[in-house]
């Protein structure tokens, strides 16, 4: 299933800014939607529409700093950072109808959020993100002439869902992930 | 997962085992999820059932259907 208009616009500006070449990986439902072309099969759950995009920044390479907030405003000028208590930099950017979450892997101290100063944001550290984004691959999001994005391999995506479904730290999240696993199967 | 198994079962099972072998919590997490989903993909099982060999007596050889005796 192709991304919706807001999803496509965001993917396009993120790709044009070169973030997928610098270590940013598209994860979550929108990444899942690219797998139909990768695997060559219809994925029934691909029609599952979401109003958010998850960008995983396991590492951000290169020296030139960029600001993810400014980049997202190119897709929709209504994008504003959403601040949580004690946030030094934002890790969520929202419009009235859409949100972009920045996530990352756990560091040595297992603290969250993690500051990504070169990108002008923070990121929520989640378990097993390193496994998900290792060996990420390129795929095409079917928006406009096609947007080259970086996504986890389909196998790792499926196995990551199996792993996080058992995480009990956040019951709501665990339930949501379980639903995703069941839908994916 | 069904599609991945259908596409390349061996590769998927290899990745599954590699993930399980990353640690005890990984193994238990994956196995618990598979159990909840009613899956029987388990480590160490051969994909096809194997009939155990009968010990003690030699089995009688049968002629292949395409072979004919002379005369």
Give a description of the structure:
The complex is a heterodimer of chains A (185) and B (71). Chain A is an alpha+beta fold. Helix content of chain A is 32%, strand content 23%. Chain A contains seven helices and nine strands, in the order αβααβαβββββαββαα. Chain A has helices at 5-16, 29-33, 35-39, 68-75, 129-133, 154-164, 171-184, and strands spanning 24-27, 52-57, 80-82, 92-94, 99-105, 114-116, 121-126, 137-141, 147-151. In chain A, the strands form two sheets. In chain A, strands 1, 2, 3, 4, 5, 6 and 7 form a seven-stranded mixed beta sheet that branches. In chain A, strands 8-9 form a two-stranded antiparallel ribbon. In chain A, a hairpin with a 5-residue loop joins β8 (137-141) and β9 (147-151). The longest helix of chain A has 14 residues, at 171-184. Chain B starts with a helix and ends in a 35-residue tail after the last helix. Chain B has two helices and no strands. Chain B is mainly α and 71 residues long. Helices cover 45% and strands 0% of the residues of chain B.
Roughly how much helix do the residues of chain A carry, as a percent range?
25-40%
When the domains of chain A are counted, the total is 1
What distance lies between the first and last C-alpha atoms of chain B, to the nearest angstrom?
58 Å
> Beta-sheet strand percentage of chain A?
15-25%
Radius of gyration of chain A, Cα only, in angstroms?
A: 15 Å
Structural class of chain A: alpha+beta
Name the beta content range of chain B.
Answer: under 5%
